[in-house]
Amino acid sequence: LPVREFVEQTAAGKLRAVAEEMKRNGVSQNRFYSEA
Q: Which domain of life is it from (predicted)?
């Protein structure tokens, strides 16, 4: 894979993992983005 494509896929995977964790923890996206 080209490095850029690999990085983009890794970032997308991390975003999905964060979204799943937020769902499990019941954290709203608004709170997540305001604290980030």
A: Eukaryota
